[in-house]
Specification:
about 300 residues; about 50% helix; about 20% strand
Length: about 300
C-alpha cells in the first residue's frame, strides 16, 4: 500500500544525491582557483637574437621548494614588450598568454636585459576542459607548468591524432620540456617505431636517440633496434663511427649488447688495435674480459 510513497521517497533521495554530486564536482573544479596565486621573479636576456629572447622564471613553492625554468621563445609572444634600445632602465609591463593561463610581467629593462616580478592566472575554461576529459581538478601548480611549457590544446590534439590520446599531465609536460613533439613522433613512425610509449619518447629525446642516429645505424645494418637499446647506446657512447671502426678491424655485425658492454668497460678502438696485434682472433667478449682484468 505504501509502494507509491516509497518510490517517490526513493526518487527524491536520488535527485538530492545527484544535486550533491554536482555541487561537490563544481567545488572541486573551482578549488584550483581558490589557491594562493602563483608569483615569482623573471629575468630576460637581451638583445633579441633570431627573433627570440631567453626568459627565466624563478619562484618558491612551499617552504623549501624552488622552481626555476629558462627557455627561448619568440619575442613576439611577449604581448606589450618592446626591447629597449638604450642602457637606461625603463619600466616594462607585458604578458605571455598560453592556453593554460596567462603570466603578467612587471619590472624594468634596458638594452641588455630586464627583471621583475610576474603573476600567473590560470584559465578557467582550459581547466574545465581538462576536467571534462577525466583529469579531474588540477592544482594550480600543474596549470602553471602547462602554461610555462605551452602544453596547448593544439599540442594535445596533434598527439591524440597520432595515437596518444590519454597521456597523463606529467607525461604531456615532460614531452614538451624535452621536445618529444608530434614532428619527432612522426619521424619515429616513418622509421618503423610505431608504438613508443611517452617514457620511451622522452628518454630518446633526453639522450639523443634521434632519427639521424637511427638512420646511421640502419646504414650499418642495425635495423629495428629496440628503443631501450638505442638509449643505452647513446648513454654509453656507441656511435656510428665506433661501429664503423670496429668493422674495419674485422668486427662486423657485433650485437648491440656487446657493443654497449665494450663501451661500458672502455674497450676503445686503440685498445682493440693493441690486443688484436698480439691476438688476431680475439673476440669482442674476450676484449671485454681482458679489459675488466686489466690486460693491456
Amino acid at each position: 500500500m505504501n509502494a507509491p510513497k516509497d518510490r517517490r521517497r526513493t526518487a527524491r533521495i536520488l535527485v538530492m544525491a545527484g544535486l550533491i554530486a554536482l555541487i561537490l564536482s563544481a567545488l572541486l573544479a573551482s578549488a584550483v582557483f581558490a589557491e594562493e596565486p602563483i608569483r615569482g621573479r623573471w629575468f630576460l636576456e637581451l638583445p633579441v637574437v633570431g627573433g627570440e629572447v631567453e626568459l627565466t622564471l624563478n619562484r618558491r613553492s612551499g617552504k623549501h621548494g624552488h622552481w626555476n625554468s629558462s627557455f627561448d621563445l619568440p619575442v613576439a609572444q611577449l604581448k606589450g614588450f618592446s626591447p629597449p634600445s638604450s642602457g637606461a632602465d625603463v619600466p616594462v609591463h607585458f604578458e605571455l598568454a598560453r592556453d593554460a593561463g596567462t603570466l603578467v610581467f612587471d619590472g624594468h629593462a634596458n638594452a641588455t636585459g630586464g627583471s621583475g616580478r610576474f603573476l600567473f592566472t590560470a584559465d578557467r575554461g582550459f581547466a574545465a576542459e581538462l576536467a571534462g576529459k577525466g583529469y579531474g581538478s588540477l592544482p594550480e601548480e600543474k596549470l602553471y607548468a602547462m602554461a610555462v611549457h605551452d602544453v596547448s590544446r593544439a599540442f594535445q590534439r596533434e598527439l591524440a591524432e597520432l595515437g596518444y590520446a590519454r597521456l597523463s599531465i606529467d607525461d604531456l609536460i615532460a614531452m614538451r620540456i624535452h621536445g618529444a613533439t608530434p614532428e619527432f613522433i612522426r619521424a619515429m613512425k616513418s622509421l618503423g617505431y610505431e608504438r613508443l610509449s611517452a617514457d620511451d619518447l622522452v628518454s630518446m629525446r633526453i639522450h639523443g636517440a634521434t632519427p639521424e642516429f637511427i638512420r646511421e645505424l640502419m646504414a650499418l645494418g642495425y635495423t629495428e633496434v629496440p628503443a631501450d637499446d638505442l638509449v643505452s647506446m647513446r648513454i654509453h657512447g656507441v656511435t656510428a663511427d665506433f661501429i664503423r671502426q670496429l668493422a674495419e678491424l674485422g668486427y662486423r655485425g657485433v650485437p648491440v649488447e656487446k657493443l654497449v658492454s665494450m663501451r661500458i668497460h672502455n674497450v676503445t678502438i686503440d685498445y682493440v688495435r693493441r690486443i688484436k696485434a698480439r691476438d688476431p682472433e680475439v673476440s669482442p667478449d674476450e676484449l671485454v674480459n681482458k679489459r675488466i682484468h686489466s690486460h693491456r
